[in-house]
Specification:
InterPro entries: Glyco_trans_2-like, Glycosyltransferase_2, Nucleotide-diphossugar_trans. The protein has a 9-stranded mixed β-sheet, with helices on both faces. The protein has a single domain (8-267), classed as Spore Coat Polysaccharide Biosynthesis Protein SpsA, Chain A (Alpha-Beta Complex). It is built from 10 helices and 9 strands. Helix 3 (80-88) links the parallel strand 3 and strand 4 (93-98). It has helices spanning 8-15, 48-61, 80-88, 104-114, 134-146, 168-185, 201-205, 217-223, 247-265, 288-291; strands at 16-20, 38-44, 67-73, 93-98, 119-122, 155-161, 197-200, 227-233, 297-298. By secondary structure, it is α/β, with parallel strands linked by helices.
């Protein structure tokens, strides 16, 4: 699944409908539920056969870890909505639906904005990323966040598929693209195409959002003054369904995006504030962060607004 239209991220935010399991909104005493430590954001399009198996794997991998699962259905035309509604009755899962397909990056943006966790883990919805790797990435991010001067609050932990289970055309094209990208952008990341990544939610919201941005997260994080570390992760063959995009299409679009991000890197960087003084700043309005998602909340199972 790839971003396909201009300003898709903005359109997706306007056109998303939220579906939430009531159990994720309140605790047993009727008060607001405590925010989870990690939100697993999964963008999907026409992945109906993979929904329930992948949700079960995520639940098993994060047993004992406060978490939520946020699926973003990017305009599926198969049984994905029905499978998501079924999964939401069995797990701490919420899902959003784009009225029309806006692309993978737009789906990730919608999911992160709707998420409540301090950390975000992203993975592809085709089952090729292994949810069992999430705890190791989370531990790495937590350790960095707790380390003095480690910049852990701005650390991206990126998965590196050392043994890819893809067709030879995908492997070769990705290898070439990674080398060209690393040379041009200097992001020192061997596998930016891996969907399994973990980062602080606040860090992602501080980045520029545009079509296909998910391919360039390491470069964008470095531009924002953050850090990137790559960790080897498992990669599995696709067992169900079919890929929703072609290798040549992805490669052609990626070339244009690459030069666009290189141009962005050469623009002025944001200043880093070293010290401040004077009166205390005004408190943030209640719910300001949560409302940044701009997503209308509707009852679980409701149909998208027409």
């Amino acid at each position: 699944m790839e971003a396909a239209t201009p300003s898709a991220a903005g359109r997706a935010t306007r056109d998303a409908t939220a579906h939430a399991d009531p159990g994720t909104r309140a605790d047993a005493r009727g008060g607001p539920a405590a925010p989870p430590l990690v939100s697993v954001v999964v963008p999907v399009r026409n992945e109906a056969p993979n929904i329930l198996p992948l949700v079960a794997e995520i639940e098993a991998a994060l047993a004992g870890v406060p978490h939520e699962i946020v699926y973003v259905d990017d305009g599926s035309t198969d049984e994905t909505p029905a499978r998501l509604a079924e999964a939401a009755r069995q797990a701490p899962l919420r899902f959003l639906r784009h009225r029309a397909s806006c692309g993978q990056s737009a789906a990730v943006v919608s999911g992160v904005k709707a998420a409540r966790g301090r950390f975000i883990a992203t993975l592809d919805g085709d089952g090729q990323n292994d949810p069992a790797d999430i705890p190791a990435l989370l531990a790495r991010a937590q350790a960095a966040a707790e380390g003095a001067g480690a910049g852990g609050d701005r650390l991206l932990v990126a998965g590196h598929r050392t043994k890819r289970r893809d067709t030879w055309t995908k492997r070769i094209s990705s290898r070439i693209a990674n080398r060209v990208r690393a040379r041009l952008l200097g992001d020192a990341t061997p596998d930016t195409g891996c969907g399994l990544k973990l980062f602080p939610r606040a860090l992602f919201l501080d980045l520029p959002h545009f079509d296909h941005m998910h391919r360039f997260l390491p470069a964008l994080v470095l531009r924002a003054g953050g850090q990137v570390v790559s960790v080897p992760v498992n990669h599995r063959p696709r067992l169900r369904g079919a890929s929703n995009y072609g290798t040549l299409d992805r490669l052609a679009v990626g070339v244009f995006d690459l030069f666009g991000v290189a141009w962005l890197q050469r623009r002025g960087r944001r200043p880093e504030i070293e010290a401040a003084g004077g009166a205390e700043p005004a408190a943030e309005a209640p719910g300001g962060t949560a409302r940044s998602a701009g997503l209308p909340a509707e009852a679980a199972g409701a149909e998208p607004t027409r």
